[in-house]
Automatic annotation (TrEMBL):
<keyword id="KW-0418">Kinase</keyword>
<dbReference type="Pfam" id="PF02782">
    <property type="entry name" value="FGGY_C"/>
</dbReference>
<keyword id="KW-0119">Carbohydrate metabolism</keyword>
<feature type="domain" description="Carbohydrate kinase FGGY N-terminal">
    <location>
        <begin position="3"/>
        <end position="239"/>
    </location>
</feature>
<feature type="domain" description="Carbohydrate kinase FGGY C-terminal">
    <location>
        <begin position="309"/>
        <end position="429"/>
    </location>
</feature>
<dbReference type="Pfam" id="PF00370">
    <property type="entry name" value="FGGY_N"/>
</dbReference>
<comment type="similarity">
    <text>Belongs to the FGGY kinase family.</text>
</comment>
<dbReference type="InterPro" id="IPR018484">
    <property type="entry name" value="FGGY_N"/>
</dbReference>
<dbReference type="InterPro" id="IPR043129">
    <property type="entry name" value="ATPase_NBD"/>
</dbReference>
<protein>
    <submittedName>
        <fullName>FGGY family carbohydrate kinase</fullName>
    </submittedName>
</protein>
<dbReference type="InterPro" id="IPR050406">
    <property type="entry name" value="FGGY_Carb_Kinase"/>
</dbReference>
<dbReference type="GO" id="GO:0016301">
    <property type="term" value="F:kinase activity"/>
</dbReference>
<dbReference type="InterPro" id="IPR000577">
    <property type="entry name" value="Carb_kinase_FGGY"/>
</dbReference>
<keyword id="KW-0808">Transferase</keyword>
<keyword id="KW-0859">Xylose metabolism</keyword>
<dbReference type="InterPro" id="IPR018485">
    <property type="entry name" value="FGGY_C"/>
</dbReference>
Length: 479
């Protein structure tokens, strides 16, 4: 048995082929760029996504890894949207989850909803934010009426990718959180936000069901079943081994996503996203705005690559310097697009190494800010967290996060957990896996555990208090 997982992420298209025990046969990746043509804008060209897909497929095919595939699974970045015409032609650059241009129009949309309907927006957050598809639709209608008049579909990247591979765009309830009513369909109130919005959204199906079969597009062999798939963060939960109540994870990608499975429905906490139950999993999560992205930005400012900056940070002694990573606002748990980043507490002894270490700690403090309300929503503390994503490659950063969170981190062997999770969804879809726990038990492995250093507890507890106080005090200056 071999399964192909594809992850259309914020910075790259990644793909890998796995055997039944989760061993990676071959993998490939192609990067794409985010363009920022105006303040607050963050766009991507779907043509770059397709070029990345064909590139990774060609590389995997050359290795022989695509022979005799049993199934294909896909996942992608979410809260990124693109619009197409009746022929499937992309009409406008994709507006990504990092884009804040729609914040003003989003505020006016929330006012149109009843109190009951507000509780169903974005997993219980209660407001239409700048990344909501209704906000994107309203912005296009107002600022790009020529585009909006020709729009026939409003799609997430995964849905668009499925259309390219199988001929059919299919959405899933997890990626579409806040867009799905109690009956599993798109609710009527979406048309109160933007008239005709429901008709532009693709049909919904279970992430582990078959969307269709490959047509040969993109260089993939024809006739292979493709699972509907889901968002990259949820896929990473599966690939990181979240399979039962109490399981928790830190996904260290472009943003930092902290998530935890609860024993049952009903728990909530301010700023935390509550997903609909899926195959026995009741998951709460909090995505930050900048995780690895903060390190990438700092590397550009301070000089060198992100890897250089991590090496430099390892030479710095732990200190009192703080970094707030809100470079483009913050998502969970405060959901404030106006927040901005800061280094605080610099002195004459502060150099590049100290600034670099503060970035690593600042991202960890953002994750800790999420972990508190997340555990409240899940009904109890996390005994430990799985760790995956690009940021988990660094031993130093994993140890810093374990220290700041005061929880052991169990780093998975497969860092690209979203790719593995997509392959696991394919296994469920084609019947080579029987359940999430069964697949996790044989396909997910832990490579190393990082234990919190008790000697760091006092310093980091104090630092976290100052981090929260600084964020609260500085926020009003930028609103």
């Amino acid at each position: 048995m071999t399964l192909l997982g594809i992850d259309l992420g914020t910075t790259s298209v990644k793909a890998a082929v796995y055997t039944s025990d989760g061993s990676r046969v071959a993998a490939a990746a192609r990067r794409h760029v985010t363009r920022r043509p105006a303040p607050g804008h963050a766009e991507q060209d779907p043509a770059d996504w397709w070029a990345g897909l064909t590139g990774v497929v060609a590389e995997l095919d050359a290795s022989g890894a695509l022979r005799d595939l049993d199934g294909i699974g896909v996942c992608s970045q979410v809260n990124t949207h693109l619009v197409t015409d009746v022929d499937g032609v992309v009409l406008h650059p994709a507006i990504t989850w990092q884009d804040g241009r729609c914040a003003a129009v989003a505020g006016t949309l929330t006012e149109r909803l009843s109190e009951q309907d507000r509780t169903r927006v974005r997993g219980g957050l209660g407001t239409v934010d700048a990344s909501h598809p209704a906000a994107r639709a309203a912005w296009l209608a107002e600022h790009r009426p020529d585009v909006w008049s020709r729009t026939a579909s409003l799609l997430a990247p995964k849905d668009w990718l499925l259309a390219g591979l199988t001929g059919s765009a299919v959405a899933d309830p997890i990626s579409s959180i806040g867009l799905v009513g109690p009956d599993g369909t798109h609710p009527d109130w979406l048309d109160l936000l933007v008239p005709g919005l429901r008709a532009l959204l693709p049909p919904l199906a279970d992430p582990a069901s078959v969307a269709g079969s490959t047509t040969g597009a993109g260089g993939l062999p024809a006739g292979v079943p493709v699972a509907v798939g889901t968002m990259d963060a949820w896929s990473a939960l599966l690939g990181g081994g979240v399979a039962a109540p109490g399981d928790a994870i830190d996904v260290a990608g472009t943003s930092e996503v902290v998530a935890m499975a609860a024993p049952g429905p009903g728990g909530t906490a301010p700023g935390i996203v509550t997903f609909p139950e899926w195959r026995g999993l009741h998951v709460h999560a909090g995505p930050t705005q900048a995780g690895g992205d903060a390190l990438t930005w700092a590397a550009g400012v301070l000089g060198g690559t992100p890897g250089d900056l991590i090496s430099l940070a390892a030479t710095a002694e732990p200190g009192d310097l703080l970094f707030l990573p809100q470079l483009a606002g913050e998502r969970a748990p405060v959901w404030d697009p106006a927040l901005r980043a800061h280094w605080l507490g610099a002195g004459f002894g502060t150099g590049r190494a100290e600034l670099a270490r503060a970035v690593l700690e600042g991202v960890a403090h953002a994750a800790r800010h999420v972990l508190g309300p997340l555990e409240t929503a899940a009904g109890g503390p996390a005994a430990s967290l799985a760790a995956c994503g690009g940021g988990a490659h660094s031993d130093l950063w994993c140890q810093i996060k374990a220290d700041v969170l005061d929880r052991p981190l169990r780093r998975t062997t497969e860092r690209d957990a979203g790719v593995l999770g997509a392959a696991m969804l394919a296994g469920l879809a084609v019947g080579t896996g029987t359940s999430v726990p069964e697949l996790a038990s044989r396909m997910v492995r832990v490579e190393r555990e990082f234990i919190p250093d008790p000697a760091e507890r006092g310093r980091l507890d104090d630092a976290h208090g100052r981090y929260l106080a600084a964020q609260q005090a500085l926020g009003p200056l930028f609103r």
